Amino acid sequence: MSSSSVVLNTGVQMPLLGLGTYKLRGPEEVYRAVDAALAAGYRAFDSAAVYRNEADLGQALRELLPKHGLTREDVFITSKLGPKDQGESAMDGALHSLSQLDLGYIDLYLIHWPGTQGLVVADKRNPGNRAQSWATLEELHRQGKLKAIGVSNYTPAHMRELMQSCKVPPAVLQVEFHPRLCQSELRSVCKEYGVCFQAYSSLGQGELVTDPAVMEVAKNCKRTPAQVLLRWAVQQGVPVLPKSSNPDRIQENARLFDFSLNDADMDRLSSLDCDHKYCWDPSEVA
Q1: β-strand partners of 146
Q2: Over the stretch 64-112, which tens digit does the pLDDT of each residue have?
Q3: Per the confidence metrics, is the pTM higher than 0.90?
């Protein structure tokens, strides 16, 4: 698995490819997607409290792992603390995720968002809430309930703030990343601190698959635009989390490790960078 995984600063291997489960709702849809993903070779699954599918994901895995000849230790499960639980409710929030998934432990647990639900950006309570959430994650990590801990949607300033106060450094930063948002400053901060930089929204919420440059690269290497966009990331050592409920698409997105892009294609895709965010903007969070 080493060629298709990265080693976190905890020493654990995390697959480069995981199934994103945002917008997967209901036990049937989750079960179908997880079944297709396991069959296609996915060994990582990314959820969050705000996705409201942790219980369905846990149930699907408990039922499907034996079918695919796998055990709990063969898969890597990520979930995230909801913004409503930031601060003094962090322990309740994290324990709720553990209980909903009901898989014994969580491989990676992230603070989903640097702000707190209901507080404006400039509210002075946000930094304290972030610190309190992190201390809670550190405690659950010490207990072995969260094998690795990290953050999502943090800016360079948030990362530096965390690194100055943490006892356990974050293992992962998960953010939006694709050719139109190359995140060079964040990537260099992660490299400096030994934090794994992980991508979500690799397809730019579907808009990048029709970009003329992406389509031309895909045509030249006889691959789909989605495969090219995902390969662009993993070829840089950046883990990806494509999300789909379509079994054929799930299988198609997994075919990333039997081809590579040449330097000219990599450069051409990277030249699309224009600092464009398709998702929320964490720089608007104090």
Answers
A1: 106
A2: 999 999 999 999 999 999 999 999 999 999 999 999 999 999 999 999 9
A3: yes
Domains of the chain: 12-271 (3.20.20.100)
Determine contact, residues 85/92, Cβ cutoff 8 Å: yes
149-152 β-sheet, strand order: 19-20, 44-46, 76-81, 108-111, 149-152, 172-176, 196-200
Q: Are strands 149-152 and 76-81 parallel, antiparallel or unpaired?
A: unpaired
Q: Regarding beta strands 19-20 and 13-15, do their DSSP bridges make them parallel or antiparallel, or are they unpaired?
A: unpaired
Is residue 138 over pLDDT 60? yes
Cross-strand bridge partners of residue 240 = 17
pLDDT at residue 122, as a whole number: 80
* Residue 154 falls in the annotated catalytic set: no
At CB < 8 A and 24+ separation, what contacts does 87-95 make?
A: 87/116, 87/125, 87/128, 87/129, 87/130, 87/132, 87/133, 88/129, 88/132, 90/132, 90/133, 90/136, 90/137, 91/136, 91/139, 91/140, 93/49, 94/136, 94/137, 94/140, 94/145, 94/146, 95/140
How far apart, in whole angstroms, are the C-alpha atoms of residue 88 and residue 154?
20
% the chain with pLDDT above 90: 95
Bind-site residues:
112
8 A C-beta contact, residue 72 and residue 104: yes
Active-site choice (42, 51, 154, 200): 51
Tokens coding 232: 């662009």
